[in-house]
User: Fold this.
Amino acid sequence: MPLTSDSPTSRTPVQRKPFRLFKMLLGAACACSCLTSYAFLNQATKPQSDAADNSGINPHPIHLTLPQANPLSAVAQLGKSLFFDPMLSGSGRQSCSSCHSPAYGYNPPNALTVQKGGKDLHHAGYRPPLSLAYLYRQPPFSIGPDAADNDVAPDLNAIATSVRGDSRATKQAGVTPAAPAMVAQGGLFWDGRADSLQRQAYLPLLNPVEMANASIDEVANKLVHSRYRPSFTLLFGPGIVNDPQQLVSEAMFAIGRFQIEDPSFHPFTSKYDAWLQGQARLTPAELRGLLAFNDPKKGNCAGCHLSQPSRDGLPPLFTDTQYEALGVPRNTTLVLNRDAHYYDLGICGPFRKDLAQQTQYCGMFLTPTLRNVDKRAVFFHNGAYHTLTQVMDFYNLRSVAPEKIYPHDANGKLALYNDIPAAYQGNVDTTDAPFDRHVGDPPPLTAQDIQDIITFLHTLDDGYLPEKKKPSDTVHASQ
Ligand code: HEC
Ligand code: HEC
Assistant:
């Protein structure tokens, strides 16, 4: 939930800080603004009237600006081999793709709450893996005003002092904010602690419950004695094999390059993408689901999981890349949670340390993309849920019937927001729909709405078109 130094304001994704495309992702320059156009939202939600004939065709098809699909560079090809090679792990049996499987939209290939890793593959992970798809426009982590592209690091202590106790801005799809809000956004991992795909890739390599290498030297040693040695010397010069730090750095650069260059990480082949371009019909249920997803009085999902293309045609990624404390219930099956005093607080720790004092961010986690969400079988940062129906019940009932979401404590008292210590429970979002209701109010969604939204989410699965048309082939469908 963003913080504001002003009185409560309605804010929407419309005035997002322009994304610095690719900047964090290995520094490639690309100047692209990602301001979303609400003209589109209005158009997209128009089918109620325009498409009264229920044709299911988008009455206002648009041309999507899709990433170029070029052959992989030599570095990216090397990265691709490394991504799928279990040789890089301490166990010798786990690759990046073990937890981020291309067949599942780079989600985990199973329904486990957390993946097993470590040298013996018996160590339970700390959090569910995120998808690696659609990170190509993820900006670096920042905290700052939402409206301007400022590269100056903000004075966090000053912000903490100025915003403490102030009201928050609210996120409502389709309403322009009156004032800029201070928000945490961008970055990789559930807590944004890695800034680039290159730096990120070190973390699983050395994480004792993931790929579990003891040191950079151990990884370098494997690479020096691997079949990749000739590729490294060819690409980075013969000296590379004598410089362990540089060698591993180039390997991680290569893996990052693969994730950016390979179209499988951002295929945009979902039915929704086809519909946006006028190339597919949504069924009545899918269309109703889209409307409920966008409707600020129903799901308001699009307030955070952006569903509209930008004005210049960048396809929506179903995240505003910002952080919220939703108060997801505690998952008692996590190994770390056996300790009743342990809390995963996201931005303020324990995995990231730099913002530990910024308690106004405790409990906040990244808003993940909903593209291919249907291919996941574990949801939220603590894997509290395993089905989309459970997720929908959480959004629908948390405010109006919390007794259906949280357990009761030993004294029979409802353990509201039980995965966040009492001192930080004020950070939980109670202002954005669908969380702005009160106990006993009617729930925002009917059983039919829930079913429709889930049906709509299925249209975000890639692979709808047998073969993705090249951007140049994309045409405006005749109306
Ligand atoms: C044992 C399972 C496992 C393996 C192996 C693994 N990861 Fe991950 N990955 C995770 C988990 C868990 C997270 C989320 C961690 C967190 O938020 O703290 C994650 C997060 C990520 C993210 C951040 C995604 C986002 O949306 O912010 C990237 C990028 C990533 N992994 C890349 C890799 C690469 C590259 C490799 C191979 C070098 C790899 N992973 C190997 C489990 C794994
Ligand atoms: C106020 C912003 C906000 C709104 C509104 C919102 N979400 Fe989310 N969504 C988030 C955040 C933040 C997370 C991750 C929270 C966590 O793990 O603690 C999330 C997670 C999810 C996940 C789990 C994804 C995964 O990979 O684990 C699903 C599914 C989801 N949201 C669907 C929806 C739907 C459907 C709606 C509308 C009913 C909705 N969201 C409304 C911010 C929001």
